[in-house]
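Q: Two folds, back to back.
A: First:
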Amino acid sequence: MPSRNLSHLPSSFAMYPKVLANSFKKKNLSALPNLTLTLNATSIDRKHLAAYNTVCGFTQSDILPATYLHMLVMPLQMALMVEEDFPFPMLGLVHIANKITQYRPVNACEKVNITCRFGDLKPHDKGQQFALLADVYVGNELIWSEETIYLFRQATAKSETKPEAEKPKAATPIFNALWSIPADIGRRYAKVSGDSNPIHLYNTTAKLFGFPRAIAHGMWTKAKCLSMYEGRLSNAFVLDVQFKLPVLLPAKVGFQSTVNSKVETHFAVFDAKSGKPHVAGMIKSL
């Protein structure tokens, strides 16, 4: 697989003109670019880490939350998706799942090497889905990896001929905690993460893409869930989530956590009033 070495972390903000331009081009939707991006000897900015911890609900520490390294991976993901031969319009993509594996805790004093590439392209009952894969090393030691799944919505034979049957209304779940999520959390997280997708910023910009109000970032919601387990996690674990319905801002949601075994804990986020699901996740000790 061809590889390109980067000299610095790409600016997500600087790539948005390309995001807009590429989103309106007609493309061949049958293949992903065959490219790996690599960024070596990257330092952790402690001020940025502190800002991330604040907005996501973590306590201040030099030990990185497992979700923090996504902040360094996401600009590389964007750089891959603004490649000329990337087949999908970025503004039409839906983030449907994210799986992080932490092999050991990472300290802010360590320099990391990052690689990012595309994974599989697969059919989905609502269109096509594809994966972005990332690995993070300290020296030659693999310390962290991530699989991010996106969906490109399009009409399919299955969705046209077999509409989904209406499901019975589920009982309102019992919550371990209630969160009141402010209307500006999308803008606050965008400032830290660089993910300034207009669906997260303001009601007016979200409405341009079919949302009644701005929605929370999925990765902010995942990080907020992880913050509920601070001090109770093993050194090595898998953190796997599926994003269900968007969190319309402002929101009141319920967090639910269930220990399924000695090594596995399941959690979920629901709308506090209707009980509709926003996130379903699992933490598994390694």
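A: Second:
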Amino acid sequence: MVGLLTVTISQTNTFLGGHLRRTALICKSFCEYMRYDKDTVYRIYYGALLHDIGMVGMPEKIINTPSEQLSEADFIFFKRHPVIGEKMILSAYDLRQTAKIVRSHHEDFGGDGFPDRLAGSEIPIGARITRLANDYDNLIYKNKIKAKQAAETLKERAGYIYDPKLTPYFIKFIEENVTLKDKETKPAGIKIKDLKIGMYTAEDIMLSNGMLLIPKGIILDSAMLEKIQSFDTLLDTERVVSILR
């Protein structure tokens, strides 16, 4: 079900599909880095993968524009998406815990977020982690700022937007694993069939039917390469894509 929903989202808006996948992969890797149990890891992973599902069908200007740059009317509309998303997935019994993450991923640690103005430990830990990963990705891909500056922004907002205990661990994690190199070197071109573990995608990899397979901004691992291989009939494996080693 989650896979089907993710494919649907990717079809409606390429940016949103890529954002959800990047956010989810960061959350999953961070939870493993923190040595959370497997059930917790996957509950948070699915929550992150679906956190913006309530934005499906919204105007592209709302999806693609940084929230702080939206007009007052558009921001009011934007603020509905956590509740809409929760309602969309609550009907699936196994996703009820995931739905709480979807609803609360815009709550501020200091209590000024939405939709419920929760504060501190009232916010599910999965939502606190998703908020960090979500904002980190948006700062880079929506606000177009450097990765190091994005990390500094998270650090500055710890305590009133982000969990002050989790934030230092998250920043340390992305420094060690996601890499904070600003990647000022020019992307290299490589054939899809020659992609290797550790390469960083500098562009989306799309299937011939227009579906997003691998979003830009992903560090390839063995699971990603297996996914590419499993879709080889829908890929031109000789096509050159941009990567950063």
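Q: And?
A: Residues 14-33 form the longest helix (20 residues).
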